Each structure stands twice: as structure tokens, then as C-alpha cells.
Amino acid sequence: xxxxxxxxxxxxxxxxxxxxxxxxxxxxxxxxxxxxxxxxxxxxxxxxxxxxxxxxxxxxxxxxxxxxxxxxxxxxxxxxxxxxxxxxxxxxxxxxxxxxxxxxxxxxxxxxxxxxxxxxxxxxxxxxxxxxxxxxxxxxxxxxxxxxxxxxxxxxxxxxxxxxxxxxxxxxxxxxxxxxxxxxxxxxxxxxxxxxxxxxxxxxxxxxxx
Amino acid sequence: xxxxxxxxxxxxxxxxxxxxxxxxxxxxxxxxxxxxxxxxxxxxxxxxxxxxxxxxxxxxxxxxxxxxxxxxxxxxxxxxxxxxxxxxxxxxxxxxxxxxxxxxxxxxxxxxxxxxxxxxxx
Lengths: 210, 122
Known about the structure:
The complex is a heterodimer of chains A (210) and B (122). Helix content of chain A is 75%, strand content 0%. By secondary structure, chain A is mostly helical. The termini of chain A are far apart. Chain B is mainly α and 122 residues long. Chain B has 2 domains: 68 residues; 37 residues. Chain B is 63% helix and 0% strand. Chain B has 3 helices and no strands. The radius of gyration of chain B is 21 Å and the shape is flat. The N and C termini of chain B lie far apart (69 Å). In chain B, 26% of the residues are buried. The chains are: A mainly alpha (210), B mainly alpha (122).
């Protein structure tokens, strides 16, 4: 803990000292930084979808508006599922760091169940809207709604598949450094999806109903 | 000159390098704050707690606060010099996001208002 506050007698060669001095950073830092850049570019893609929704949300073409379609109770449950899954994801990543595979599998299973519950509620909601004749082809508002919320749902599906894959890798390879790096990227991805959902919840659901 | 010059190590998002026991606490605090912000958003949108025209502003403020909570407690983005690279990348991302969303709304609203062919918005 005190290591970074004091100057060692001789700085070991090949070890990163921040800002590029002293050689390349550890692989873990480089990998996570690259993945962080990917996440930010994903956010910019979501920003384009948010912009389309914000511009088109009033154009209901005589069809149903958000106030008639959205069920805030199920949206609240969805939000809590995602928040709790972010929490269990964090605890799972922590257990993996500490080389506790049993705890990691437990938290991974909890994350998977919570993420799956979110997807189930969302699919039920979508199916109900389509059954009411409020599918994506009904109006510009609904097209942009299904594109934005659906893209987030596809990301959650991808995150769940990735999680299952990581569990399989941990089983076959153990929690070695390369697996831990992939797990770190996965947890970054999952936390980032939660951040996108905060935007969806506020801009689409809460503002759409108010 | 008692203190030696501090040496900065590169940091990576998503990882708190030191004090692994504080990590569970950090996640729990983050979860608590996020749940409080979420419930506050629902309360603000569903009750007359806020002056009606101020509700969208209140919701946006709560959303930004919650995103901050997620960044600090879940993604462990610190303000220290160690995570300069991560913060700079985030700052650029935020800039582009605001340009895309704000610019689209601004331009399209203008076109809607000025276009003689535009249908009246329902």
C-alpha cells in the first residue's frame, strides 16, 4: 500500500511507472484500457440511438404514446434486476481476483439469473406491445423505441452468453491471468450496460410517462 | 522536502488496486446509492414532489448523479493522477455523446419549426 508513495532505491526496469515512463504497462492495464475505449465507442453508438429517440419520441402518428404503453412497475423490477446483477458481478469479479472459484461460480450464477430475469421481463413487455398492435412498424416513436431498448437488450443477451463462456473457461483453465483479464473486460462491459440502462430508464420510461 | 516525489502507476478501470477488503464495502455503498437514486427518480416522476415543469430537469440531475455513482463505485474510476488516461478517454466520450444528442435535438427542432412542409406535431 505504501509502495506507490515512496521512491524505491532503484526503479526496476521494464516496470510501468505511469505516463509511459519506464517501459510498457502491464498487459492487464493495456487490455483493460483498450476495452475501455471500446466501451466508450459503444456509448457513442447508443448516443446516436438516444438522439434518434429524443427527436422522434413525439411522432406517434396517431398511435399509442409512451404514457399508454409503459408499465412502470415492471420497469422498476427490471431496473432492480440490473442493479443487483451489477452488484453480484462486482462481487464475482472480486472473488475471482482472490482466486476463490466456488464463490465466483455462485456470484456468476446469481448474475446470470438476474440478467435472465431482466431479459424475460423485457421480452414479455415487447411481446405485449406487439400483440396490442404497437410494434416497431406502427410509428416513428415505436421504431426508435424498439431500436434503442432492443439494442440494449441485445447487449444484455451478449453479456449473458459471454458470462456463460467465462464460467466454462474458468472450469477448464482455472483462474489464470489470461482468464482474469477476460473476466475484467466482461465486468466492465456489464457495468457499462447498467449505465446505459440509467439513460433508458430516465429518458424513455420516466420522461415518457410524466 | 520531507516527502519524496510520488511515483504514479498506471491504473485500469474496474480495478481498485489496494485494500481488497474495502472493495466489498465500495460495491455495497454503490448499490445503496444507486437504489436510492432510482427510487428518487420514480418518486419524482410519479408524485407532485417537484414543481411540474422542473420534473425533467430533476430526472436528468438524478440520472447524472446515478451514472457518477456507477463510475466511481462500480467501475472504480478515481480522480487521482493514476487514472489520467481513463478519465481523459471518458471525458472525450462524454463530449461526443453530448454533441450527438444535443446537436441532433437542436438541429431537428429548428428544422421542424422552420420547415413550411412540416406536418403539425401531434
